[in-house]
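Hello,

Our lab assistant flagged a job as stuck in the queue for most of the afternoon. It eventually completed. Since we weren't sure the result was trustworthy after the delay, we are filing this so someone can double-check. Below is the sequence as submitted and the structure that was eventually returned. Let us know if re-running is recommended.
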Amino acid sequence: MRDEHRQMANALRALSMDAVEAANSGHPGMPMGMADVMTALLRDHLVFDPADPAWPDRDRLVLSAGHGSMLLYSALHLTGYDVSIDDLRGFRQLGSKTAGHPEYGHCAGVETTTGPLGAGLATAVGMALAERMLAARFDASLVDHRTYVIAGDGCLMEGISQEAIDLAGHLRLGRLTVLWDDNTITIDGATSLSTSIDQAARFAASGWQTIAVDGHDQDAVSAAIGAAKTDPRPTLIACRTVIGFGAPNKQGTSGVHGSPLGAAEIDAARQSLGWEYAAFDIPDPVREHWMAAADRGRSAHAGWQGRLAAQDITRRAAFTSAISGEVTPEAHAALAAIEGEFRDTRPDLATRQSSQQVLNAVCAAQTTIVGGSADLSGSNGTKGASHRAVSADDFSGNYINYGIREHVMGAVMNGIALHGGFIPYGGTFLVFADYCRPSIRLSALMGLRVAYVMTHDSIGLGEDGPTHQPVEHLASLRAMPNLNVLRPADAVETAQAWECALSSTATPSVLVLSRQNLPSLPRSPGTSSGNDVARGAYVLVEPDTDRDVTILATGSEVGLALAAAADLAGKGVSAAVVSMPCFELFAQQTVDYRDAVLGTAPRIAVEAAVRQGWDAYLRPGDDFIGMTGFGASGPAEELYAHFGITTDAVVSAAINATATSADSTT
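-- returned structure --
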């Protein structure tokens, strides 16, 4: 290994151990162990341009082992990204762009938020898939890049890794390369404490090329990356490393994983590595070698800009539109048309069925909207007439068969959204939101436009029983920041919910849809007051006289609330009905609007789910009709009666509330 290359890697080690020491917090072991691998990758292969970190045809580098963030931050600093030496000194401090784990949108050059182990690897599968799909539409003149992942033992132990490598191997994502930090150490000690798996055999069985190298031999690492570029399969490069390489008394032990080295060990490491410079001091010759690593990318970027400019105006506009993620005028027109059709025809449809009709219309109008399902396409209604499946032999399709892999479906959709060029959605049953919740959380944390289509939304799914009947899931999802949970009550609300989901460019959405048919809500055919769902809640029925009671409901229970209001009117009780398809959007409305919708009369909420979360809109003394435990197996209509979610129950609660209110005012 040439001395300048060794010193390039030592610069990464020094900055990493110095920043962790300054913060008195962090993980020096992985950056020190993988410094040679990072150096070989950036020096010889990675195509990037620090002057334009979002250039569409750059290579993607994902640090799946996000605890080793100083490895990435150090490399970004040394290659000229907007990461200063003061940013490195401020590692892990409040307000610093060099957060404890890499955060998308906070630091230039960070492609995705990582930290939950394995999630970065799975997200990178989405990026690699998006690259192939975009290349199938615009060819290699505009789309010709690769995706690299630095992963650790923890990433490969997490279950999502199996879902990810299986899907990537099946689709033959040959432009995906995983550089595994094979150091045989985790927090508790040696990996042998908890695993005996042959990782190379696991990857090979999933359709990957596997290569093993000495992770401290930069030339061997570089040659392995070169071999990965020539193989049609995705590649795992097992880089055997020493965690904390260069720290003579702590390297190779779990003690160097997640704690600062300490001043004495840092001094010893400097001596061991032959690094004679003070903390955060990088000599000019080493800086020059690192800055030169970006030259390849700058040249490639300039060539790409020339090719883009040479495209005819229609093709160039199509590419720019796809990368921007805009919802086209044609798609908006398709949404408006299908909503108008629903208003006129007033269909009685399950909202999963009306959602499928919406998707039929909008996906035909805009092919950059890419769908999928976790092996429930027919049940979810996620596959439309214009959809063609993506396969290893044809990436020009717009529908992804994720298989029974909810967790990786969410992560892949995150990767697709981060890559750019497509707007992803994917479906499963609402009860299985638990399987993909970590990916949903990352969607929300990163502010990505990803649509989760969650069907079979309540006890209304019937005979499959409590294992498939979600009762706590609405509350659980509503608790997550920056996530819109949309539970439409009929076909029109479903079309409006999709408009909200597609328009929410910095917020993911969960569309919660029914299995059973729901009647159309009362509206005048052909008229529209705008997107009611976008307001989160709205008055569906307002009595002619002052309200005696306000009934709040979502989804399938809105029809039940309407029936109760009609019954109450016959008993001389004036009931307003409020449809509340999205708590989060309602919370964003003005106080005056929210007060006008909710009114001052006693309130009754009805939803076939647990009460948690409803007390944001229910006051002491207001009533809730819903679930207090798990469901049961049986026909839907019998279950609603069994659990007391009925028109009669709402009517009785309303009469009691009205009587109590009258007593309190006399």
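-- support follow-up --
The delay was a queue issue, not a problem with the job. The result is valid. The mean pLDDT is 97. The radius of gyration is 28 Å.
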